[in-house]
Amino acid sequence: MAAAAQTPSAARARGLTPAREWPHITERELATATADVECKRKHETVRVWWGVRAEMQRADVERNKATYEAVRRDLDTVRANIRRALDE
């Protein structure tokens, strides 16, 4: 419940105004932030953004597969060496 108490909508639900709960936030800033979130929800910005990022990462991995595999082998060697050192 404590985390929810930190949001403007939770404050309003408790009968508090943003000016009382967060005196440093102006009504204009709150309205802008609210409009921003509503726009992102309407246009599914986060879903699209993450989808594009995931595709870019998949393409990067495919393009640099040999490098990523070499790094993986090096990490496996480091981990094996650490396990051996800890077992001694």
Explain what the structure shows.
By secondary structure, this protein is mostly helical. The protein folds into two domains: 40 residues, no CATH class; 41 residues. The protein is built from five helices and no strands. The longest helix is centred in the C-terminal third of the chain and has 23 residues. It is elongated. It starts with 7 loop residues before the first helix and ends with a helix. The N terminus is likely disordered.
Quickly list its features.
single chain, 88 residues, elongated, 5 helices, mainly alpha
Run of helices and strands:
HHHHH
Low-confidence stretches: 1-5
User: Approximately how much beta-strand content do the residues carry?
Assistant: under 5%
Cα end-to-end separation: 48 Å
Structural class: mainly alpha
What is the number of strand segments?
A: 0
Count up the helices: 5
Mean pLDDT: 85
Please tell me how large the radius of gyration is: 24 Å
What's the oligomerization state? single chain
Helicity range: over 70%
- Sheet with the most strands? none
